[in-house]
Amino acid sequence: MAAGSDVRVEAVLLTGGSSRRMGRDKATLPVGGLPMACRIAGALSGAGLAVTVLGREPIPGVAFVADDAPGQGVLAALSRYEPRGDLVFVAACDLARFDPRLVALLAEAVGGASAAVPVIDGRPQPVCALYDRRAMEALPRLVAAGETRLSRWLDAMKWVPVGEDRFAAAGLDPRCALGANTPEELIRLLGGDTGGGGSERPGAAQQQRQGRQPGEEAH
């Protein structure tokens, strides 16, 4: 990765959300023949990343940290995670078209910033983003002050937007950075297939128009 061979990159997969709008646990929804969270964990592991599931239930073959305060939101969950790497890729479990090549794209973009965040249809995607150790270690103080909004976390750091032009240049479908909160969003996101991660429909992210606003349900 452009971040340097001596830079350690790890991944945290968030699976502890309530999935109220989906109507069932998003982590277990089948995509491409696998539960969505298992598919993402496998893709990240296959890309050579150490993966930790942060949520209610473990996934075989990867590390697990129990979310001992479910329902308090993404920031609270992440604040209890102690990073081991220099960079941490944070992924929600509802990234139905996730492509692990995205991690390398973000690592190339981050430079000296605290985060590299996909921006799809003008909307940051903070739960499919790469953060440095400083950003992660700032979370306990932010949460202790009563903050719950992902947008405020981004406001507190210098972050680099990674737009759809960068996705196109890397041969990535920007939908790989989008999550789905409802059954309708999942159907639109998959676009009639369950393979995920493809790039066969350039500009499809603009057609979807469902990118999650920072602070919305994400895991």
In N-to-C order, the SSE pattern is: EEEHEEHEHEEEHHHEHHH
The percentage helix is 25-40%
Name of the CATH first level:
Alpha Beta
Please count the helical segments. 9
Helix/strand structural class: alpha/beta
Rg value: 16 Å
Mass-distribution shape: globular
Distance between the termini: 27 Å
Number of E strands: 10
Low-confidence stretches: 194-216
CATH architecture designation = Alpha-Beta Complex
The CATH topology is given as Spore Coat Polysaccharide Biosynthesis Protein SpsA, Chain A
CATH superfamily: Spore Coat Polysaccharide Biosynthesis Protein SpsA, Chain A
Mean pLDDT: 84
Strand content: 15-25%
Domain count, please report it.
Answer: 1
Largest sheet: 8 strands, mixed
Give the SSE map:
Blueprint: E1 9-14, E2 30-31, E3 34-35, H1 36-46, E4 50-55, E5 63-66, H2 74-79, E6 87-92, H3 101-110, E7 115-120, E8 123-124, E9 128-132, H4 133-137, H5 139-144, H6 150-155, E10 159-162, H7 164-169, H8 183-190, H9 204-208
Parallel strand pairs: 1-4, 1-6, 4-5, 7-10
Antiparallel strand pairs: 2-3, 6-9, 7-8, 7-9
Describe the structure.
The chain is of the alpha/beta class. It has one domain: Spore Coat Polysaccharide Biosynthesis Protein SpsA, Chain A, CATH 3.90.550.10. It is built from 9 helices and 10 strands. The strands form 2 sheets. Strands 1, 4, 5, 6, 7, 8, 9 and 10 form an 8-stranded mixed β-sheet that branches. β7 and β8 form a beta hairpin. The chain is globular and about 40 Å long.
Summed up:
By secondary structure, the protein is α/β, with parallel strands linked by helices.
